[in-house]
Amino acid sequence: HTQLSVSRESPRLVAMDLAPCRGLLLTASSDFALRLLDLRAHKLLYTLRGHTDALSACGFMKGNTQAFTASSDRTVKLWDLEHGQTLRSIPARAAVTCAAVHVATGVIIVGHGDGTTAVWDPRASEAMSVPTPAHRARCVIGVSIAPDGRSLLTQADDGVVCATSMDAMRAMLTLDGLGPVAGHSTPVYSPDGAHILARGVDKLFCWDASSGERVCA
User: Fold this and answer.
1) What would the pLDDT profile of 86-117 be if each residue is shown by its tens digit?
2) pTM for the full model?
3) Cα 137 from Cα 82, distance rounded (Å)
4) Pairwise CA distance, residues 17 & 75, whole Å
5) How far apart are CA 128 and CA 119, in angstroms?
6) Contacts 24+ apart (CB under 8 A), 51-54
7) How far apart are CA 35 and CA 45, in angstroms?
8) Cα(14)–Cα(209) distance, integer angstroms
9) How many CB atoms are located within 10 Å of the residue 89 CB?
10) 123: left (phi over 0), alpha (psi -120 to 50) or beta
11) Residues with Cβ within 8 Å of residue 3, at least 6 apart in sequence
């Protein structure tokens, strides 16, 4: 295997995303920088700076020509990966502790340190939606969007997982039993959207996405 360093200072990686069809790797690091690496050519293409606090998420968008980042500095940024520059910087109401993008639509969901979530659709708005309470003032540590884009999952640091409808931002399911979770933890839907999977410190639970019934642990 080949080893490729993102920086001479060797910052800690906090998030990454891969574009396998183009051989590109996106990394968010502890030095508040976003980096784009070409894995086929074994080189660093861009180091993109602009955040003033810890990054919490990054991801490719729009056919891998753009990317987003989220940060504790209360901003979400869009980046032009072809020219290596910032496109937009959108303020959030609280520290952004996690974020995810729906690849087909480009809609970005963010989770906050105060237990709320918000939505930003870059195609239609220049501002985040009003934050929606999701986790009773517990820090949101993971978020993901259903394959069909109609609902989202969040997990808080107490382990509780919530399923929320995207159209009304209304809670549909509250799933517990995992106990406190350390670090980032992203709950996910199965590819067909029928099941929900999430982790605790020493356990993994699977629920039916319609009824909330636990299928296995």
Assistant:
1) 999 999 999 999 999 998 899 999 999 999 99
2) 0.89
3) 39
4) 19
5) 6
6) 51/75, 51/77, 53/95, 54/14, 54/30
7) 8
8) 29
9) 15
10) alpha
11) none
The region, left, alpha or beta by phi > 0 then psi within -120 to 50, assigned to residue 186 is beta
Contact (Cβ atoms closer than 8 angstroms) between residue 144 and residue 153: yes
Dist. CA 64–CA 150, nearest whole Å: 23
pLDDT in tens, 165-196: 998 889 999 999 999 998 899 999 999 999 99
Q: 135, 173, 187: which is closest to 156 by C-alpha?
A: 135
Residue count of the chain, please give it. Answer: 217
Amino acid at 111: G
Task: Count other Cβ atoms within 10 Å, centred on residue 10.
Answer: 11
